[in-house]
């Protein structure tokens, strides 16, 4: 895609957000559109597939603060005819630049023909200016999601992810040329991908028409990818989720995103992890939590109870006279930490009150209550409401 096409595209409109949208709003809009338009959800729908590509391209620019800033500044600079469809700048009138306007003032004193404007656009389109060799654009980053069980997230797991996305062509290995041939350096731009021109008092640069800004020409394109070096492929990626991942965390897999054009580096894959709740365990950072039901007699007399852990079970001692709601700590039986070791298991004791008692148990409890009263024990002694 040429610089001009990038400038004329409205990436905010593609995502359905305003130009002042926050990064979080951009992220949410992209995720919704990506789910709705994903090729797996729309098999055979070419319109949805093209829309998915456009949305991914818009997100790749707007989700990167540096690229977004350059994109916004460049669009603002060329708004109102500063970069007309005919190419070059329009001196005076028509909302363009006047003849008294010095482009070099914007770019630190450099003239437009001396890399100033080219450097600005080069940063946005991954080019180093008009005097360096053009590099094909890096592939866009891709986002996907996966849901893990609570214990899988705590202990770590390897999961397969099935994805349909642009990937390097397996026939030409991303070069775009038919196997056995190679692209040749474009003679028109000498491999830079950019042509410099002068128009009146101004100099400007445009992508080379012969090689479309790539710096190379393919005489015999690959029949499978038609010279792009990219194919839409459904692939399965095995992702290792490290122990201790938390709900909402993103995992980055470098180079597993959308393929770059003609062998350029691929983007990255970001996997958002969702963790389902567990019937037994809760989590507080690296610590596991659970509630242990106990009887009143166990709290009073003390006991040892076997409780579950991630690895199996462990005995937890409940000291005599333990109060209801007390938290007992079992060290090293929590969530594994990245630097080694593990958090703790926090066991909250909770007295379980029987709903019904038989006659013998009820009579025994009444005798206990009388003995307790005779001993002078008052559970509300010192209570503010007494």
UniProtKB/TrEMBL annotation:
CXXCXGXG motif repeats lie at residues 169-176, 186-193, 208-215, 222-229. Residues 156-234 form the CR-type domain. Keywords: Chaperone, Cytoplasm, DNA replication, Metal-binding, Repeat, Stress response, Zinc, Zinc-finger. Its main location: cytoplasm. It is found in: Cytoplasm. SMART domains: DnaJ (SM00271). Its cofactor is Zn(2+). PROSITE patterns: DNAJ_1, DNAJ_2, ZF_CR. This is Chaperone protein DnaJ. It comes from Nocardia tenerifensis.
């Amino acid at each position: 895609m040429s610089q001009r096409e990038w400038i004329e595209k409205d990436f905010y409109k593609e995502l359905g957000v305003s130009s002042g949208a926050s990064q979080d709003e951009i992220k949410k809009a992209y995720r919704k559109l990506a789910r709705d338009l994903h090729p797996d959800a729309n098999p055979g729908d070419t319109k949805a597939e093209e829309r998915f590509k456009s949305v991914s391209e818009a997100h790749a620019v707007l989700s990167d603060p540096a690229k977004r800033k350059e994109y916004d500044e460049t669009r603002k600079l060329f708004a109102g005819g500063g970069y007309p469809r005919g190419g070059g700048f329009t001196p005076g009138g028509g909302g363009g630049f006047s003849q008294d306007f010095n482009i070099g003032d914007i770019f630190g004193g450099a003239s437009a023909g001396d890399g100033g404007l080219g450097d600005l656009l080069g940063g946005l389109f991954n080019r180093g200016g008009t005097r360096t060799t053009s590099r094909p654009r890096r592939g866009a980053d891709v986002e996907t999601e996966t849901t893990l069980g609570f214990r899988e997230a705590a202990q770590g797991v390897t999961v397969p992810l099935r994805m349909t996305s642009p990937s390097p062509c397996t026939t030409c290995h991303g070069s775009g040329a038919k196997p056995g041939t190679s692209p040749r350096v474009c003679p028109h731009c000498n491999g830079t991908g950019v042509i410099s021109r002068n128009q009146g008092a101004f100099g400007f640069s445009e992508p080379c028409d012969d090689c479309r800004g790539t710096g190379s020409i393919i005489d015999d394109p690959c029949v499978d990818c038609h010279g792009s070096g990219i194919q839409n492929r459904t692939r399965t990626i095995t992702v290792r989720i490290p122990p201790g991942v938390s709900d909402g965390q993103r995992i980055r897999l470098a180079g597993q995103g959308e393929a770059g054009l003609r062998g350029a580096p691929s983007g990255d894959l970001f996997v958002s992890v969702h963790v389902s709740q567990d019937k037994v365990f809760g989590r507080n950072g690296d610590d596991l939590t659970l509630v242990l039901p106990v009887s009143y007699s166990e709290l009073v007399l003390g006991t040892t109870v076997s409780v579950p852990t991630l690895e199996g079970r462990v005995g937890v001692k409940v000291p005599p006279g333990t109060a209801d709601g007390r938290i007992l700590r079992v060290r090293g039986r929590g969530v594994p930490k990245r630097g080694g070791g593990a958090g703790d298991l926090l066991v909250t004791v909770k007295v379980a009150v029987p709903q019904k008692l038989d006659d013998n148990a009820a009579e025994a409890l009444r005798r206990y209550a009388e003995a307790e009263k005779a001993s002078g024990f008052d559970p509300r002694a010192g209570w503010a409401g007494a």
